[in-house]
Amino acid sequence: MSSILLAIVLGLAFGAALDRVGASNPTLIGKMLNLTNLNLAKSILLAIGTGSVLMFGGQMLGLVDVGHMSVKTAYVGVFLGGLMLGAGWAVSGFCPGTGVVAAASGRKDALFFIAGGLLGAAAYMVTYPSWKASGLLDKIWGGKVTLGTVPGSKFDGVTALPGDVLGLVLGLGFVALAFALPERLTGQKAGAQPAE
């Protein structure tokens, strides 16, 4: 029961953080994707990088049990699904998590997004045998693998590089990129007026 309560508390805190940085605002998502406001992208990079540093650094120091590491199976359908998710995110301004946060904060358009997602999931369930038969769900690279080999984990590495060091370096790279990115790559500064 305590793990369920902890999950609820962490979920509420994560949702509040997503709403605070603007991840539940389709306008800010659009500005991020057209490179006119990268503050949200910087927040995402910082969160991923910090999480990676804490997880892999904690594993290296023995503070985090490597047995808790979870890896999803690699198959072609995951990559196609990722492309579809990205396209849906660009069109709607929501991803599954931010759609729920937006609905919780009162956005009615997010309710339609959630309904569409549930309808899509139901359509996938009904057509699952066809997807399975197509070969798109066949494992590639051995299925559950990591980029490097993580000591003590049950997952194979695609390379012989030490996975915990690789995860730490990638995490630090994401943090550095979050600080190095400018506020925008295209467009004018917010509130700036063109010269006459």
UniProtKB/TrEMBL annotation:
Keywords: Membrane, Transmembrane, Transmembrane helix. It comes from the Bacteria. It comes from Aliisedimentitalea scapharcae. The lineage of its organism: Bacteria, Pseudomonadati, Pseudomonadota, Alphaproteobacteria, Rhodobacterales. The chain crosses the membrane at residues 43-64, 76-104, 110-131, 161-181. This is YeeE/YedE thiosulfate transporter family protein.
